[in-house]
Design brief:
38% helix; binds 3-isopropylmalic acid; alpha/beta; binds magnesium ion
């Protein structure tokens, strides 16, 4: 009897529908070769849900996502919804899904694929292969926030006016559970873990540091070190190949993963997995946004989404073979010279062929 997985697909906005279509086609082809059946159910979230129902994350979407075995998401947001009230922004859908599904760990692997070395803006990047483990349901993204009117003045007499605030707050429990994921992951890799924080300024960061150094005693084989986030931003450029696992807070992880996207040449190549309690559905999405400027033009790089589908197979279902099949097919497709415009550079990739989203998906399927 073949195995069956129910996958909730949330295409979202901008290039989201194109890249998730590509990823699902690849996933269907890859799983059918391994006697696995996937059933997909399309759900609305983000701007698409605002247009249809007036809210970014309808109950139906969250219920159906919870009811699935895993969720594949494209991207949400776009200029069309820039003026909706803050609590109804498309991004709220993503945050609501992450917290609603309890997905506290976001794994963002960063690798340079063979043939894409030239896409990196770094002169001699070396063999880049690290993972950012980003805390995903806490910190300033979910801390107490608000806005109020103040009658006070600044010391130079300037009227304060309105005051807006967001809070970086973390509990020991929240920090320890993500640290454990990071240490365990380091054990399966090159056994190096870097905690990135701002412990020279933030109390919350100092707690991360204390807990991480405590936990490091349970992992004597893991070479554990710490970096301030500003310094890390610099070290990622100067010695990217030396990193193995980076663990950090929600906000720092968000920022550093975009930097990592550029280091490997294109953010369009990077997948991610968001996971929580074992047995609950994880959410798999590329780290890039909805790229409204190229939406609907068959220009988007679907590889971040395709590789996210591979991560789903591995992380969620333990289907290592399917995941490896997909990743190998992506490598072959790149080796054959096909490039979406984000990874094709004049003067460097002149012997490669410009391809659209659909052509890449087709080639990956043929290369399975
Ligand atoms: C990401 C994105 C989101 C985030 C946005 C769209 C809310 O930038 O997944 O990195 O900040 O987490
Ligand atoms: Mg981001």
């Amino acid at each position: 009897m073949s195995k069956k997985y129910n996958i909730a697909v949330i295409p979202g906005d901008g290039i989201g529908p194109e890249i998730t279509t590509a990823a699902i086609e690849v996933l269907e082809a890859a799983t059918s070769k391994r006697d696995i059946e996937i059933f997909t159910k399309e759900l609305k979230a983000g701007g698409a849900a605002i247009d249809a129902y007036g809210i970014p994350l309808p109950q139906e979407t969250i219920f159906a996502a919870k009811d699935s075995d895993a969720v594949l998401l494209g991207a949400v947001g776009g200029p069309k919804w820039d003026n909706v009230e803050p609590e109804n922004r498309p991004e709220k859908a993503l945050l609501g899904l992450r917290s609603g599904l309890g997905l506290y760990a976001n794994l963002r692997p960063v690798v340079v694929f063979d043939g894409l070395e030239a896409a990196s803006p770094l002169k001699d990047p070396g063999k880049i292969d690290f993972v950012i483990v980003r805390e995903l349901t806490g910190g300033i993204y979910f801390g107490k926030n608000g806005m109020y009117q103040s009658g006070d003045r600044l010391s130079d007499g300037t009227v304060k006016g309105k005051i807006a605030f967001d809070t970086e707050s973390y509990s020991e429990g929240e920090i320890n559970r993500i640290l454990k994921i990071a240490f365990d992951l380091a054990m399966k890799r090159r056994k190096k873990l870097t905690l990135v924080d701002k412990a020279n300024v933030l109390i919350s960061s100092r707690m991360w540091r204390t807990l991480a150094s405590q936990m490091s005693f349970d992992y004597p084989e893991v070479e554990f070190d710490t970096l301030y986030v500003d310094n890390c931003a610099m070290q990622l450029i100067s010695r990217p190949a030396s990193f193995d696992v980076i663990v950090t807070s929600n906000l720092f992880g968000d920022i550093l993963s975009d930097e990592a996207g550029q280091i490997v040449g294109s953010i369009g190549m990077l997948p991610s997995a968001s996971v929580g309690t074992p047995g609950t559905p994880g959410l798999f999405e590329p780290i890039h946004g909805s790229a409204p400027d190229i939406a609907g033009q068959n220009k988007a790089n679907p590889m971040g989404s395709i590789l996210s589908a591979a991560m789903m197979m591995r992380t969620m279902f333990g289907e290592e073979e399917v995941a490896a099949d997909i990743e190998n097919a992506v490598r072959k497709t790149l080796a054959s010279g096909l490039r979406t415009s984000d990874i094709k550079f004049v003067g460097v990739d002149d012997n490669t062929t410009l391809a659209g989203t659909k052509e890449i998906a087709k080639a990956v399927i043929e290369n399975l």
